Input
Amino acid sequence: MVWRSWFWNIVLAILLAILASMGVITTVVESTPVGKAVFAVVTAVTWIGAVRALFLGVRVRPDAIVMRGLMRTYTMRWGEIESIGGDMPAGGPSGSLGATAPVVRRKGKKDVELNVLGGYGFSPIRPTPAERAVAELNVRLARWKAEHPA
Output
């Protein structure tokens, strides 16, 4: 099972592709070798981000939850997960604007915010995609714990 926001993934991919295209043009017209090298590296990273943006989301595997973000992919084994909670204030500036995101609490490790499922609560549709994801993830976690008693 996979949860992702196709609309926002595509919007982000398009914006990054536009930025990367501008980087290609800048790299071509840049006159200094150092400038060309810097713009080429930044442009390559931006193209990678544009492709990764299409795959942002949370995937459930039999052995783990995988959260693919723009810069990093987290794999959290079911055995290391204590709980999965929803509607926690998101980290960073978006949290101060009211954004919420589900959080995976892990035993002895740093909690992981599933920010790719975050939202601002503007939608009148309930349950939200994040709420549905948290409910299903908790069902899967309970099933895993029942099958693998400590």
The longest strand covers residues 81-89. The CA atoms of residues 12 and 69 lie 12 Å apart. DSSP finds four helices and seven strands in the chain. The chain has a mean pLDDT of 89.
